[in-house]
Write a structure and sequence with these properties.
Length: about 375
């Protein structure tokens, strides 16, 4: 059996008629920039994430960059974060002129370990950037308590956390602002790139809204900030606005398949399974296992026509642009080990039960046979 890692176009096929109609409507209207669907999508998203404000932007990376600028993060500031993430989380900190300070991750959730934050705080620390990974949220209670104690800004990298909540509060409502991503492989995918900012702070909202379009103020061609060109493409807004009607069903399937994996793989020797933390839901953006024989397991699964992927193969402090921040090899032992051991199995809205059972049988076969 061949099992694909993704099924991107299947989302379109689920809603083909409505998406086609919305796309043609946009093309016909000529309202290609900040049009009807841009506004509608922002309204839908503010409601969905239960935030006072939602601003659609061109990518998750732009969302992070814009919220950092709006919060005045820049040269001389330190931002505490983790090196086990997609590069955008740290790239945007560096772009502002601030210094990323990496702390190690929790060995079960792979997200920032709150117990390690306090030792990294210095007089220069301005913010903490936790990254919600793989479909559940970082430990926000502990992070917010530390931030309050030390008077720090919290910004959420919620790129993978659409529809996530913790103790009844939706992702994007803990910190001062949050950045979401609609890159094609995320739980809600644009046609190309897309992102979203959420905030409950009036001043941050006004600043982000201005920075999104060149720092323009209320009056056209008058500038309050140095900004960017970062509107969400109207076609993507239209497509995602329609896709939202199915997102809960799609996430339900991810969750269902995730739980079948958990049953099928329970107790398999040498495999660490994902755990959902108390108070969190899990949208299973990825289903990641750990294995000391990860590379062999990946090769074995590929030989069985099972698509799999590694998020993330190399921690950020090992990459040339981020190597000089004082974190040498061995400085983040859990991050480094998880990068060597982690493997993502197929999980997507159109994955079928028999596919999950087949993938699981392959993993069990590998575990019982051992490495040849
Ligand atoms: C996808 C992602 C981003 C960046 O989003 P883009 O829309 O691709 O710019 C940032 N952080 C994390 C953790 C991500 O997974």
């Amino acid at each position: 059996m061949k099992v694909n890692f993704y099924a991107i176009a299947a989302q379109y096929h689920d809603l083909k008629e409505q998406i086609d109609a919305a796309v043609l409507e946009v093309l016909d209207s000529g309202a290609y920039s900040l049009g009807k669907y841009h506004n509608l999508f922002e309204k839908q998203m503010a409601e969905r994430q239960q935030s006072k404000y939602a601003l659609a932007v061109n990518s998750g990376t732009d969302a992070l960059r814009i919220i950092m600028d709006a919060c005045g993060i820049g040269k001389g500031d330190e931002v505490i974060t983790t090196a086990f993430t997609f590069v955008a989380s740290t790239e945007t900190i560096v772009q502002t002129g601030a210094t990323p300070v990496f702390v190690d991750i929790d060995p079960i959730t792979f997200m920032i370990d709150p117990a390690k934050i306090e030792a990294a705080i210095t007089p220069k620390t301005k913010a903490i950037l936790p990254i919600h990974l793989f479909g559940q949220m970082a430990n926000m209670k502990a992070i917010m308590d530390l931030a309050a104690k030390h008077n720090l800004i919290v910004l959420e990298d919620a790129a993978q956390a659409l529809d996530c909540h913790q103790n009844g509060v939706m992702a994007g409502n803990f910190g001062k602002a949050a950045g979401f991503s609609f890159y094609v492989t995320k739980n809600l995918g644009a046609i190309g790139d897309g992102g979203l900012i959420t905030t409950n702070d009036d001043a941050i909202f006004e600043a982000c809204k201005s920075i999104r379009v060149h720092g323009m103020g209320r009056e056209r061609y008058y500038y309050d900030h140095v900004g960017y060109t970062s509107r969400l493409n109207e076609l993507s807004a239209a497509v995602m606005s329609v896709k939202l009607s199915k997102l809960s069903d799609w996430n339900d399937n991810r969750e269902k398949m995730g739980h079948i994996y958990l049953e099928e793989l329970a107790g398999v020797k040498g495999i660490q399974l994902p755990e959902t933390q108390e108070g969190n839901n899990n949208t299973f953006h990825q289903f990641c296992v750990l294995s000391e024989e990860r590379d062999e397991l990946q090769k074995f699964l590929q030989s069985k026509e099972v698509g799999c992927a590694i998020y993330y193969p190399v921690p950020l402090h090992f990459h040339q642009p981020y190597a000089h921040y004082g974190h040498g090899e061995g400085s983040l032992p859990i991050t480094e080990r998880v990068c060597r051991q982690i493997l993502s199995l197929p999980i997507h809205p159109h994955l079928k039960e028999e596919e999950v059972r087949y993938v699981s049988a392959c993993v069990r076969e590998f575990a019982t046979a051992g490495v040849s």
